[in-house]
Amino acid sequence: MMKTVNFAILGYGRVAPTHRDAILSLAPEARIAAVCDRDPAALDAAESDLQTTKGGVNLYSDLNDLLANPDIDVVSVCTPSGLHAEYGIAAARAGKHVLVEKPMDVTLPAAEALVQACAENQVHLFPVYQNRLNSTIRLLKAAVDKGRFGKIFAINSTVIWRRTQDYYDSAPWRGTRAMDGGAFMNQGIHFLDAMRHIGGEITDVQSTLATLGRSIECEDTGSALFRFKSGALGNLFVTMLGFNDREGSLTVIGEKGQVKIGGVALNTIEEWSFAEPDPGQDALARDSDYHTASVYGNGHKAFYRQTLDTLQSGTPPVDATPELDSLKILLKLYA
Ligand SMILES: NC(=O)c1ccc[n+]([C@@H]2O[C@H](COP(=O)([O-])OP(=O)(O)OC[C@H]3O[C@@H](n4cnc5c(N)ncnc54)[C@H](O)[C@@H]3O)[C@@H](O)[C@H]2O)c1
User: Per-residue pLDDT tens for 43-88?
Assistant: First the structure.
């Protein structure tokens, strides 16, 4: 039988329960062996959430104590974004694999240092871009890879979400340049990553960003124009000022097809039109499983599954430098 992979969740805030559920869904292959948070209230929440978990969960308020635990295989970094590299590097130096929430960090030197530390210490780096694993996006990618669109002319992504002032005020790091970034760095990065995943390399970037409705250091709204290496144009509009969470969509416009993946977070197929039918893919596009209700899709679960598969296969760590690409484009957009 495969060895159980022991995960530690570092930072038990808003996104941590999504990681908790994903890890618990993979028992007995995966286990939450520890949670670390410097906030006692967060540790209390973890303790009550996980009290029924078999095998016991170690709770730590200090990262060094967590890293001294030889049983931990993977540290899932779920702290504020500007701390990802610092903590990920510490985990790598302790010989732990690093699973890190997006963005890998808020500056390129920090994210590059994380990639380097993982390479030097021969540990895997798993940056979370869970939407790539949404069933909707996988199906779209398969259609692109089969050449069903012919020439792709343009990719449009629209993100109309609502993040209130209360959300930004809920933690001092939110909306700050040093720890978070704005609507593009925190929320829009999922959609930029999806655009790259579908459209390939981006060569030119222009943007207009503004802080229009929230009292934060970074942007709450913005528009970015891209040119892909293929010649296609890209357009990404992101706002956190929606009257509600309205849309998180991606539309691909090609000479032989047009697809819109929509819902609130790329979780439903709103249009699936092609000149040439492909009975297998077209049937999947009509399947209700491809219209997931959750705004997160099943991305985190699929991401942890993929992580486990990699660890169980025993393949050595690969160079994670290409994983920096979405962050690089994002930083150009800020520049
Ligand atoms: N992939 C996604 O869909 C998704 C969704 C939400 C958030 N995120 C990312 O997850 C990260 C966390 O976001 P959040 O909204 O959960 O933040 P949060 O503020 O709710 O939680 C962060 C937690 O980290 C803890 N922490 C901070 N410094 C620490 C330290 N030195 N040691 C231990 N614990 C420490 C805080 O006490 C807090 O409990 C961010 O990078 C964010 O971008 C990703």
Answer: 999 999 998 776 689 999 999 999 999 999 999 999 999 999 999 9
Residue 266 CA to ligand 1 center (angstroms) comes to: 22
Higher pLDDT among residues 293 and 89, named by residue? 89
Same domain, 158 and 71: no
Instruction: Reply yes or no on whether the pLDDT at 296 is more than 70.
Output: no
Q: Are 182 and 280 within one domain?
A: yes
CB-ligand 1 contact for 171 (6 Å cutoff):
yes
Structural domain span for residue 95: 5-130
DSSP 65-93: HHHT-TT--EEEE-S-GGGHHHHHHHHHH
Residue 300 Cα: closest atom of ligand 1: 1
Q: How many domains does the chain have?
A: 2
Q: Are 261 and 249 in contact (CB under 8 A)?
A: yes
Mean pLDDT of 9-22: 96
Is 332 among the domain residues? Answer: no
Closest listed residue to residue 72, CA positions, set 34, 125, 113: 34
pLDDT, averaged across the chain: 95
In ligand 1, which atom is closest to the CA atom of 11?
A: 24
Which CATH number goes with the domain that contains 68? 3.40.50.720
Residue range 280-289, pLDDT digits in tens: 999 999 986 6
Cβ of residue 39 lying under 6 Å from some atom of ligand 1: yes
Secondary structure of residue 25 in the 3-state scheme? coil
User: Does the reported pTM lie above 0.85?
Assistant: yes
What CA–CA distance (Å, rounded) separates 230 from 257? 17
Ligand 1 binding pocket includes 105 (Cβ within 6 Å): no
